[in-house]
C-alpha cells in the first residue's frame, strides 16, 4: 500500500540530521558557482517597461557592467601572470646547432602569453573609449536626457576602479616586460624567414609602449575623456558622490568603500587637469575634505598582496598631469613609508589605527552582543512559526526585528572583514625592518620581502587578535548561513512591507500635503507608486480584519496591506532610486549641497529625511535578498593566502609554509596554549577554503588551486601531528598532576606550578566532519589513530627506558605506566581508543593466549640474572637490596637511555622533575615498593613464568656449586677436630687458619662458591618479599569477593559459607533476574540474562577455588629441596658408624663454615667498619642449603665461628671473674663482633625456615598457571614439580 505524500513528508520531517558536533569551523559555502538570486539574466533591459525615459541610461549601465566583468577577468590574468622565461631551457654548447628550433619553440610559448597581454591592451582602449563616451553623453548642454542614475554612477566608479587596478598591476608586474623582451628577441630571430611582418612589428611596438609606460591606461583614459568636449561636470559629480558617501558612511559594504577610496585620487587628478577645472572642483569640494579622507586612509587594499596609496598616486600622477599640481596641499600628504613608526601612532590625530589589536576589545563585545540578540530573534521567529493565528502586529515586529538583525550582522561582518583587509595592506606597506630569525646564522639580508611583511611583521598579540577576528567572522557567518531558510520569508515580507508602506502610505501623505500643487514632482511620486505598489496585497485579508485600519480622518488614513514574501526586483529598486534622486535634485546633477543637502530645495526637512532613509534602504535590499551570496562575500578571507606579487619579486617558485599567514595563525594557536583560542584552531583553515574558491571561481587558475591544495595537505598533516602532541601532553600532564601525592603539594609553597590549567579540547575532539577544499574529513578518527599510535610509542619508550636502567627503575616504570593509563582513560571519554591493556600486551609481545612470558618479564629476568643477583647485596635489617660498592661488579651491557620529549614522561618539565625526585628515592635500592610494582606490572599471567625462571636459576646455581664444593672438600684435611678451649681465641684462630691453608690455592674457587651461595640466597629472599606482596594482594581480593561469594569468618578464624548447600549471593541475584525477565513477556531479550546467570556460576567457582592461597616462598623452598636431593649423597654423607662424625666429616655445613669464617676475616681486614661485602644474602643461601640438607644441628655444633664464640664467651667469663683487663680480644674484637652478627643472622634464617618449611612433612604449596597459589598440596619433591602439578585429592 502506497504511503500518501503528505504522510511521507511528515515522517521525513521527524528525522533529525543534527549531531553533537560543535560549530567551531566556518560555513561550508557553495558546491556550485551559480549567480546570485538578484542577478537578472536580462540585466536592466526590463526598465523600459516602466516608461521612465531611461533607455539610454539602462543601455549604458548594461554596457558598463559587461566591461566590469571583462575587466575583472583581465585583472585575474594580470595578477596571476607568472614569468615564462624562468622555465625556458638553456641549450648546452653541444646543441648550439638547434638554436633556431629553440627560438621557434620559445616564440610559440611566449606568443600565447603575449596574446593575452594584447587582448588586455585592446580591451583597455575599448573600455576607456566607452567610459569616456558614456561620461560625455551627460556633459552635453544641448542635449537633455535622464540620468545618470545612482546605479549608473556606481557602474562608472566600478569600471574606473577596474582600470586603476589594471594599471597598478601592470606597473607592479616586472615579469611582464621581462617576458616581452624575450618575446621580441625571439620574434626578431624567427621573423627573418617570414614575409609581411610590418603589421606585427607595429603591434609589438604598440604593446611595448603600453607595457613600458607607467599609468598608460589612465593616460589613455584622460585622452579619451577630453577628446571631444570636457567631462569635468560628470567627474565632479562622481567626486561629490564619492566624498559624500565616504563621509556619511553611505557605502553599505566594505568592497564599495574600498572602490571609492581607490578611484577618488584618480578622479581628483582627472577632474583637475586645468586651473579652471581645479578652481571649479575645489569650490564644490573643499580641499580639507579630500585631505581628511586621504589622511584617514593612507593605505588602501587593491589586491591581496598589493596596496594603493592615495598620496603616492597623487604625487606620481602629478608628473603625468602637470596642470593638476596646482593644489600643492594634496601633494604634501605623506606616503605610507613616510608615516611615523607604529609606537607613535597615538600621538598623531591624522593616523588611523590599522592594527586589529587596537580594536579587538570592542569587536569582542560587538560579537558577543550580536550573537546573543540574533539567537534570541531566531527563537522568537521559531515561536511565531509554531503558532497559528498569531497577532499581526507582533508577527510584523518579530520579522522586522529579524530584518534589523540581519542588516546589523552584514554591517558587522563588513566592518570586521574590512579591518583585516586594511591591516594586511598596512603590513604590506610597512615591512619589518629588523626581522629576528630562528636560525643563528640568518641575517637581515637573507630574509625575503614576503617574510618581512608577513612572517616577521606580526607579533604574537597581533596573531592572536587576527585569529580571534577570523573566528568571529566565520562564527557569525556560519550562524547567519544556517538561518538562511529560516529567515528568508521573514526578510522578504519585511522588504515588501517597507516598500509598500512607503509607496502606499508615505508617498500618499506627501501627495496630499507637500507636493499637492507641484505637478512635476507629483507625477514622479505617482510613477513611484505605479511601478512598485502591490495593490493585490490590500485584498489579501477579509474586510472585517481591515476595518480598524481605515479609521480616522482623510488626512490620517492609512492603507492596510497584508505582507507577502514578494520583494522588488533589481530593476524596481534601480527605478525607485532614480525617481527619489529626481525628486530631491530636480534632475540637476550640479545641485550644490550634495545628494540630500537642503541647499536651494523647497522640500521640507522631514520629507527629505524620509526620502533619504528609504533611498539607502533600497540600496541594502538587494544585499538582503541575495542573502547567501552576501554572507559568502563578507566572510571571504581567502586573500590572506595569496602572494603573487611577492613570489615574483622574490624570484621563488613558492614560499615555505612558515611564511604562509593561515599556517602562522594555526601554529600560533597550538604553540600559544591559549585556552580561549583552542576552539578556533580550525578557523584559519577556512582561509584555505576561501582561497581555493577564489582560485577556481574568481581567478580561474587551476595551478593556484593545486598550490593551495599541496600546502593544505602538508599543513593539515603537520597540524594534526602538532595538535595530537599538544592534546597528548595536556592529558599526560593532567594525569600526572592528579596522581601527585596531595600531601606533597600541600607541603610545598610552589605547589600551584604542578597544577595543570584546564584546556577545552572536548569540542575539537568531537569534530567528525571537517570541511577542507570540498572534502569532509573525519577529524576525530584521525586524532584517535594518532593517539593510539602515540600511546603505543609511549609504552615502547617506557620499556626501552627501563631496559637501559637497572631493576630499581621498576617503580618509576610503574608510575609512568600508571600516568599513561590515566591519560588514556581521560582521553577515552572523548575519543574511541584501543583498550590500554590491549596496547600494553601488544608492546609486551604478550597477545597470544599460550604466551605466559612477556617483554617486561623477560627484561626483569635478564636484569636479575645479569645485574641484580651478581651485583646487589642484601641488608636483612632494612629488607632491601643495594648495589655493592665493595666487590667488583659483573660487566653489564645496556643500551643507552633513549631520548624523548617531556610528554613521554609526565607532560611538563615541572611535573617531570617532581616525579624524577620521587623515582630517585627508589633508585638506589630494591625492596618492597619495587616488589609491589613488579606484581602489578606483570600480573597473574607473567609472574609464574618469572618465578619458574628464578627457580631454574637456583637449580642451575646448585648444579654449578657441586663442582666447586667437591673441589673444596677434596682440599680439606682428612681430620678436622673441635677447637680446644685452652688456646683461647687466638689459638683457635691459629688452628682454623692452619686447617684452611689448604684453600689458599683455591681463591677463585672460593670466590665463585660464595657468589653462587649469595645468588641463591638473594633469590630465596626475593621470593620471601614476593610472598608478602602476593599475600596482601590475595587478602585484598578476598575482601572484595567474599560478600558476593557468601563467605564469612568462622569461630576459629576460618572462612565458612554463610548458608551451606545454597547458592552464593551473586548466583542468586542473576538467577532471580533471569527468572524475572522470563516471566515478563514484554522484555525483548531474556536470553542475555540467562547467559549472565551462567557466567555468574562460573565466576563463583573460579573465585572460590582461589580463596585458599598458598605461599610462593614455601614452593621455592620445596623446589630448592628437590634440586638438592641430587647432591645429598655428596654434601650430606651418612656416617658409616651411625653416629655423628666429628673429625672426618666433609659435608656442606663444614665447607660453608670454612667459607664463612674466611669471608668474615677478610671483610674485617679490608673494611673494618663494614662487614657487608657480600651482604646478608650469603647467609640466606648457605643456611637454606644447610637446613634443607638436614645439617642445621651439625652446623650449630661444629661451625668454626660458633666454636670461637663459645671460646670467647668462656674466656671473657673467666677473665671477668679475676678482674683482669681483657686485652686478649684487642686483635680479634672486630672479628668476634662479625661472628656474633653472622650467628644472629643464621639463627634468624633457621627460625624462618622452620616456620615456613618444616622438614618432618616436606610440604609446600604449588602455583597454578593462573598465578594463584594452592595451599598445602603434597607433591613429590622433583625439579619438574612446577610443570607436572598434581590435582586436588590425587
From TrEMBL:
CYRIA/CYRIB Rac1 binding domain: residues covered: 156-218
Pfam families noted in UniProt: CYRIA-B_Rac1-bd, FragX_IP
GO cellular component: cytoplasm
Name of the molecule in the record: CYRIA/CYRIB Rac1 binding domain-containing protein
Lineage, top ranks: Eukaryota, Viridiplantae, Streptophyta, Embryophyta, Tracheophyta
Amino acid at each position: 500500500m502506497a504511503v500518501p505524500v503528505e504522510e511521507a513528508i511528515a515522517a521525513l520531517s521527524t528525522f533529525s540530521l543534527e549531531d553533537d558536533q560543535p560549530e567551531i569551523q566556518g560555513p561550508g559555502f557553495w558546491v556550485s558557482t551559480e549567480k546570485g538570486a538578484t542577478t537578472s539574466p536580462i540585466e536592466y533591459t526590463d526598465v523600459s517597461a516602466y516608461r521612465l525615459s531611461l533607455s539610454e541610461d539602462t543601455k549604458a549601465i548594461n554596457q558598463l557592467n559587461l566591461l566590469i566583468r571583462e575587466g575583472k577577468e583581465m585583472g585575474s590574468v594580470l595578477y596571476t601572470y607568472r614569468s615564462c622565461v624562468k622555465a625556458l631551457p638553456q641549450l648546452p654548447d653541444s646543441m648550439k646547432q638547434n638554436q633556431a628550433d629553440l627560438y621557434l619553440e620559445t616564440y610559440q610559448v611566449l606568443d600565447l602569453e603575449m596574446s593575452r597581454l594584447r587582448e588586455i591592451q585592446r580591451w583597455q582602449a575599448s573600455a576607456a573609449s566607452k567610459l569616456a563616451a558614456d561620461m560625455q553623453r551627460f556633459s552635453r548642454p544641448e542635449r537633455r536626457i535622464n540620468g545618470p542614475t545612482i546605479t549608473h554612477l556606481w557602474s562608472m566608479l566600478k569600471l574606473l576602479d577596474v582600470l586603476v587596478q589594471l594599471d597598478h598591476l601592470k606597473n607592479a608586474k616586472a615579469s611582464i616586460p621581462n617576458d616581452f623582451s624575450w618575446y621580441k628577441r625571439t620574434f626578431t630571430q624567427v621573423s627573418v624567414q617570414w614575409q609581411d611582418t610590418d603589421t606585427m612589428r607595429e603591434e609589438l611596438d604598440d604593446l611595448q609602449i603600453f607595457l613600458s609606460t607607467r599609468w598608460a591606461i589612465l593616460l589613455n583614459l584622460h585622452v579619451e575623456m577630453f577628446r571631444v568636449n570636457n567631462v569635468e561636470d560628470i567627474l565632479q559629480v562622481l567626486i561629490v558622490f564619492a566624498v559624500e558617501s565616504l563621509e556619511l558612511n553611505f557605502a553599505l559594504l566594505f568592497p564599495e568603500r574600498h572602490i571609492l577610496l581607490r578611484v577618488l585620487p584618480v578622479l581628483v587628478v582627472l577632474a583637475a587637469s586645468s586651473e579652471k577645472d581645479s578652481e571649479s572642483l575645489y569650490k564644490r569640494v573643499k580641499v580639507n575634505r579630500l585631505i581628511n579622507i586621504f589622511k584617514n586612509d593612507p593605505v588602501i587594499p587593491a589586491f591581496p598582496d598589493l596596496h594603493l596609496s592615495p598620496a603616492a598616486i597623487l604625487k606620481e600622477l602629478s608628473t603625468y598631469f602637470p596642470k593638476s599640481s596646482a593644489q600643492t596641499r594634496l601633494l604634501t600628504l605623506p606616503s605610507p613609508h613616510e608615516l611615523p613608526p607604529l609606537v607613535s601612532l597615538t600621538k598623531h590625530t591624522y593616523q588611523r589605527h590599522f592594527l586589529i589589536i587596537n580594536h579587538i576589545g570592542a569587536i569582542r563585545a560587538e560579537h558577543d552582543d550580536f550573537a546573543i540578540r540574533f539567537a534570541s530573534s531566531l527563537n522568537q521567529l521559531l515561536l511565531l512559526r509554531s503558532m497559528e493565528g498569531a497577532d499581526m502586529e507582533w508577527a510584523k515586529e518579530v520579522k522586522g526585528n529579524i530584518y534589523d538583525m540581519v542588516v546589523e550582522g552584514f554591517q558587522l561582518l563588513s566592518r570586521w572583514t574590512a579591518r583585516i583587509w586594511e591591516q594586511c595592506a598596512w603590513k604590506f606597506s610597512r615591512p619589518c625592518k629588523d626581522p629576528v630569525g630562528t636560525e643563528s646564522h640568518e641575517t637581515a639580508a637573507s630574509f625575503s620581502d614576503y617574510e618581512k611583511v608577513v612572517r616577521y611583521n606580526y607579533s604574537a598579540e597581533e596573531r592572536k587578535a587576527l585569529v580571534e577576528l577570523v573566528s568571529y567572522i566565520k562564527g557569525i557567518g556560519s550562524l547567519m548561513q544556517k538561518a538562511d531558510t529560516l529567515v528568508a520569508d521573514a526578510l522578504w515580507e519585511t522588504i515588501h512591507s517597507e516598500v509598500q508602506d512607503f509607496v502606499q502610505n508615505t508617498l500618499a501623505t506627501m501627495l496630499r500635503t507637500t507636493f499637492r500643487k507641484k505637478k512635476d514632482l507629483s507625477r514622479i511620486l505617482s510613477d513611484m507608486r505605479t511601478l512598485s505598489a502591490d495593490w493585490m496585497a490590500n485584498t489579501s485579508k477579509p474586510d472585517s480584519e481591515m476595518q480598524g485600519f481605515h479609521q480616522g480622518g482623510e488626512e490620517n488614513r492609512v492603507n492596510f496591506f497584508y505582507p507577502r514574501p514578494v520583494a522588488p526586483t533589481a530593476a524596481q529598486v534601480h527605478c525607485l532610486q532614480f525617481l527619489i534622486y529626481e525628486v530631491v535634485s530636480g534632475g540637476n546633477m550640479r545641485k550644490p549641497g550634495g545628494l540630500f543637502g537642503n541647499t536651494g530645495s523647497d522640500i521640507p526637512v522631514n520629507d527629505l529625511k524620509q526620502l533619504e532613509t528609504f533611498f539607502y534602504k533600497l540600496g541594502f535590499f538587494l544585499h538582503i535578498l541575495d542573502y547567501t551570496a552576501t554572507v559568502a562575500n563578507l566572510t571571504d578571507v581567502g586573500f590572506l593566502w595569496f602572494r603573487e606579487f611577492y613570489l615574483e619579486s622574490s624570484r621563488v617558485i613558492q614560499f615555505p609554509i612558515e611564511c604562509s599567514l593561515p599556517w602562522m595563525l594555526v601554529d600560533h594557536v597550538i604553540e600559544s596554549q591559549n585556552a580561549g583560542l583552542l576552539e578556533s584552531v580550525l578557523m584559519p583553515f577556512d582561509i584555505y577554503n576561501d582561497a581555493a574558491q577564489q582560485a577556481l571561481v574568481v581567478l580561474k587558475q587551476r595551478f593556484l588551486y593545486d598550490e593551495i591544495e599541496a600546502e593544505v595537505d602538508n599543513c593539515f598533516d603537520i597540524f594534526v601531528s602538532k595538535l595530537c602532541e599538544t592534546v597528548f601532553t595536556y592529558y599526560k600532564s593532567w594525569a600526572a598532576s592528579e596522581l601527585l601525592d596531595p600531601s606533597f603539594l600541600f607541603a610545598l609553597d610552589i605547589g600551584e606550578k604542578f597544577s595543570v590549567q584546564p584546556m577545552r579540547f572536548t569540542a575539537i575532539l568531537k569534530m567528525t566532519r571537517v570541511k577542507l577544499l570540498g572534502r569532509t574529513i573525519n577529524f576525530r578518527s584521525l586524532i584517535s589513530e594518532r593517539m593510539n599510535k602515540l600511546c603505543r610509542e609511549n609504552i615502547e619508550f617506557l620499556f626501552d627506558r627501563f631496559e637501559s636502567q637497572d631493576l630499581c627503575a621498576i617503580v618509576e616504570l610503574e608510575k609512568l605506566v600508571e600516568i599513561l593509563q590515566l591519560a588514556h582513560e581521560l582521553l577515552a571519554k572523548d575519543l574511541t581508543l584501543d583498550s590500554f591493556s590491549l596496547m600494553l600486551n601488544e608492546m609486551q609481545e604478550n597477545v597470544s593466549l599460550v604466551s605466559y612470558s612477556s617483554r617486561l618479564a623477560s627484561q626483569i629476568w635478564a636484569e636479575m640474572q645479569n645485574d641484580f643477583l651478581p651485583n646487589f647485596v642484601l641488608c636483612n635489617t632494612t629488607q632491601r637490596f643495594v648495589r655493592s660498592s665493595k666487590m667488583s661488579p659483573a660487566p653489564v651491557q645496556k643500551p643507552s637511555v633513549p631520548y624523548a620529549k617531556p610528554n613521554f614522561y609526565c607532560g611538563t618539565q615541572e611535573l617531570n622533575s617532581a616525579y624524577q625526585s620521587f623515582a630517585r628515592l627508589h633508585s638506589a635500592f630494591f625492596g618492597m615498593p619495587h616488589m609491589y610494582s613488579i606484581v602489578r606490572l606483570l600480573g597473574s599471567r607473567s609472574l609464574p613464568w618469572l618465578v619458574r625462571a628464578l627457580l631454574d636459576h637456583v637449580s642451575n646455581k646448585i648444579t654449578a656449586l657441586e663442582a666447586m664444593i667437591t673441589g673444596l672438600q677434596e682440599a680439606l684435611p682428612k681430620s678436622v677436630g673441635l677447637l680446644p678451649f685452652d688456646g683461647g681465641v687466638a689459638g683457635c684462630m691459629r688452628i682454623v687458619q692452619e686447617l684452611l691453608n689448604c684453600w689458599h690455592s683455591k681463591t677463585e674457587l672460593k670466590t665463585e662458591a660464595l657468589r653462587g651461595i649469595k645468588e641463591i640466597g638473594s633469590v630465596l629472599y626475593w621470593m620471601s618479599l614476593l610472598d608478602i606482596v602476593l599475600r596482601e594482594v590475595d587478602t585484598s581480593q578476598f575482601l572484595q569477593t567474599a560478600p558476593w561469594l557468601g563467605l564469612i569468618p568462622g569461630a576459629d578464624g576460618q572462612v565458612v559459607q554463610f548458608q551451606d548447600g545454597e547458592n552464593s549471593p551473586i548466583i542468586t541475584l542473576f538467577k532471580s533476574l533471569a527468572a524475572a525477565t522470563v516471566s515478563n513477556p514484554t522484555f525483548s531479550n531474556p536470553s542475555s540474562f540467562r547467559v549472565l546467570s551462567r557466567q555468574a556460576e562460573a565466576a563463583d567457582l573460579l573465585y572460590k577455588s582461589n580463596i585458599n592461597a598458598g605461599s610462593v616462598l614455601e614452593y621455592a623452598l620445596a623446589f630448592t629441596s628437590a634440586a638438592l636431593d641430587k647432591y645429598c649423597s655428596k654434601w650430606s654423607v651418612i656416617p658409616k658408624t651411625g653416629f655423628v662424625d666429628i673429625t672426618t666429616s666433609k659435608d656442606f655445613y663444614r665447607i660453608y663454615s670454612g667459607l664463612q669464617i674466611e669471608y668474615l676475616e677478610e671483610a674485617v681486614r679490608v673494611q673494618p667498619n663494614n662487614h657487608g661485602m657480600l651482604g646478608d644474602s650469603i647467609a640466606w643461601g648457605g643456611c637454606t642449603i644447610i637446613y634443607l640438607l638436614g645439617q642445621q644441628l651439625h652446623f650449630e655444633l661444629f661451625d668454626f665461628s660458633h666454636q670461637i664464640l663459645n671460646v670467647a664467651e668462656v674466656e671473657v667469663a673467666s677473665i671477668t671473674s679475676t678482674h683482669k683487663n681483657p686485652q686478649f680480644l684487642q686483635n680479634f674484637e672486630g672479628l668476634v663482633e662479625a661472628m656474633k652478627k653472622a650467628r644472629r643472622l643464621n639463627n634468624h634464617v633457621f627460625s624462618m625456615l622452620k616456620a615456613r618449611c618444616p622438614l618432618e612433612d616436606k610440604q609446600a604449596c604449588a602455583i597454578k598457571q593462573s598465578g594463584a597459589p594452592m595451599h598445602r598440596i603434597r607433591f613429590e619433591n622433583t625439579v619438574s614439580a612446577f610443570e607436572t602439578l598434581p590435582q586436588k585429592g590425587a
